[in-house]
Amino acid sequence: xxxxxxxxxxxxxxxxxxxxxDAVALGRDDxxxxxxxxxxxxxxxxxxxxxxAAAYTAVDRAETEPAAxxxxxxxxxxxxxxxxxxxxxxxxxxxxxxxxxxxxxxxMPEDTPLAPLGVYGASKAAGELAVRAAPRHxxxxxxxxxxxxxxxxxxxxxxxxxxxxxxxxxxxxxRPTFAGDLAAALVxxxxxxxxxxVHVTNDGEPVSxxxxxxxxxxxCGRDPGDVRPVTTTEYAADKAHLARRPANSVLDLxxxxxxxxxxxxxxxxxxxxxxxxx
Length: 278
Description:
alpha/beta; Rossmann fold; 6-stranded parallel β-sheet; two-stranded parallel ribbon; 10 helices; globular
């Protein structure tokens, strides 16, 4: 597979580069996907598959910086879709459960209607629609990504080490997705020639952010009771410009399973991740 990884310096990008050591790895300084001239000038004919892990992921900041979010998350995929169509390559684009409003009960299948609650989700939904212009494309929706860098698990581990007792939201439920497992799944799906839209997260029983925080505290040798559960309303009471988030972030993995890709349970992946981080 002649592959190119865009957004190669992010958490998922680094995991994709590790899974594809022969891939061309491009960070924003190498190719800014939001720049139409730069994308048009790049020779994508060298690749079979382009993995787009480039994204504006500052969910709260997007509320006050909408143009920045739309530039990367919506216009960027549109530029890439045009390039993929022109050069005959497969575009694998990574999206998010934030394209949904989280009101659907139970695990959400791929055909759940798009209904984003904020700027970030709206920009990612627009990016999905743009990617469909590429004749060969795969949109992979994921959730709660944890990798090498700043993320919720890293924050909770730091707070545990520092002796803090954080308040964490207990009424938003989902599944963590570990970057290495996500990267392996994307490579496998691309290798199988899968197209369309597929949900990719770690498997296992859904958990709230609070529940995930208690698991991290326990792994770090802290009493899980040191984490205090709060509602979204309580957490947001004194925080300005906080984006609305879906209460249900659980994605249905049926199509992924039918494709022959099995994801490890998130608790196993969490233990592996925290063990490697020590």
